[in-house]
User: Fold this.
Amino acid sequence: MKSMRVIEQGNKVFMNNYAQFPLVLHSGKGSTVFDVDGKSYVDMVAGIAVNILGYDNQELNTALMKTIERGLFHCSNLYWNEQAVEAAGRIASLGEMDRVFFCNSGTEAIEAAIKLVRKAGSAKDPKKTDIITMEHSFHGRTYGSMTATGQTKYQKGFAPILPGFSYAPFNDIEKVTSLVTERTCAIIVEPVQGEGGIVPADKAFLKGLRTLCDTHDMLLVYDEVQCGLGRTGYPFAWQAYQVKPDVIAMAKALGSGIPMGAIAAHGTAALVFEPGDHAATFGGNLLSATAANVVLSKLADKRFLQHVHTGAAQLHKRLMQLKERFSFITDVRGVALMMGIELSIPVKPIISECMEHGLLVAPSGTNVIRFVPPLVITCEEIDRAIDILSDVLSSITYL
Assistant:
């Protein structure tokens, strides 16, 4: 098989960073992907919440080709380009923000946010540089974002991590409050924890964080890298809760497969950075910004968002039916098309078996199966996916 030849070569030349499944993807159409041997899979992973427009989207393809055919898809930030200006304007409008900084990934967006809030805090008081994040959070793998991540397994072996961070239990406003000092400049939180097990924030918790930040002159940062940009059925996750942050970090879905990240801010937070404070060579390049404009135009379309809500209702209904049928499913949770089922048994063998039967799902931690499909997925495709999962769960013999 061609896939095995590719994997064998990959094992020789790649560093050992990933525990990859034995699957070599080649192409896609809609919410279906195909491997190099021609087998098809219903995709409930979407590149981990990235490919929200699915595969072979003609509007995206056409826009990218037009940019490529002009022969210029990078010009550096020494100069302006129309695509980036347009994309920034769309983000500001959809997110109710004032200004935008472009980078290339979620971890870069978090790094930018960390620098922004520390500069803002230290301008008020040189000691005001501490940041509170949440236990079981995930914010990235560079030193700043890794330190912000409230999971020690990601920090193991990389000491010393950065100083000035503390961690509170998610959804526990009293514990967060107890960590606030005169040195605290910001709180960073995921409205829906992704790698921490698909755990939504309580609205009261986010409202409490907003009040806490306002009271103590701190900035509130939402990490919407995984949960933002349509995933909750709204352009931005904060709009699902109606609790507005000062800064939003975003990436993943922003380019629907083309690397793209950003932070957006409003009020005084939008005016913190000055020339030389931060930069990204490829941030806002013409090709990425072109993709972002297609994505953002879709997020401005109420029909597109209604499709997300319709698919989300179908997915939730089918997952609840599975929970009623299988006693080892202990919880169904999430928001819209960012759902997870928690099991009392390890999920990796189940995920592997689903792959064998033509379904891609992803883990979140040890015991949660995550569903973050393309936002264009149909109810029929959702049904097909859950039918496959149901058959796999029915065949479990090791309980």
Summary: Residues 302-325 form the longest helix (24 residues). The mean pLDDT is 97.
